[in-house]
Amino acid sequence: ARQPECRRVQQQGPTGAAWRLLQFRQLAALERQVFDFLGYQWAPILANFLHIIIVILGLFGTIQYRPRYIVVYAIWTAVWVTWNIFIICFYLEVGGLSKDSELLTFNISRHQSWWSENGPGCVRKEASMSGIAGLDSHSYISVIGCALEYRYIEVMHSSFQILIALVGFVYACYVVSVFTEEEDSFDFIGGFDPFPLYHVNEKPTNLLFKQTYLPA
């Protein structure tokens, strides 16, 4: 009975803060996934999908008192930070990378970030396609009036992900240490030993025999 009570106390303390942080990370990952889907950015879509699964695993580990799941989440956090650093380098064209390349779309399409055409203040200029009779289609010409270039929006997105990932890593390490200390303390006092829970103080066998052979 000690362990569930301990869990309730922890959910109200630092572990509860870690749980809320994981929920916030889940919402941030879902928001980013939506815009990557709109821009057909397949590599980020796959990375975000895996990230969402690991965050769910971290939530489960926090709620169900599973330190190993939280350790997996902490390890993934390091990978996630590395991935977002790569995204920043990609859009800032560091180390020979080009934001106009098709690397993030696996060379399947020429789509760019959704923010390239739908950023704050952006106005799309389109014109009818020439040389194709009978088709009411349009050809994309240019985007003007953007208050902020799309690559900087993507950089801010990744920087924010790195920030909350670092905070999540610190909290994950702290929660694992709390869980480990609680397990050690329960082991010391016999909290996890099933013997005290099911032990029944039986009467000595000699007393049983005495009760059996008492004269009527």
TrEMBL record:
It comes from Gallus gallus. GO terms for biological process: regulation of sodium ion transport. It is a multi-pass membrane protein. Keywords: Cell membrane, Membrane, Transmembrane, Transmembrane helix. This is Sodium/potassium-transporting ATPase subunit beta-1-interacting protein. GO terms for cellular component: plasma membrane. Its main location: membrane. The chain crosses the membrane at residues 42-63, 70-94, 160-179. It comes from the Eukaryota. It is found in: Cell membrane. Belongs to the NKAIN family.
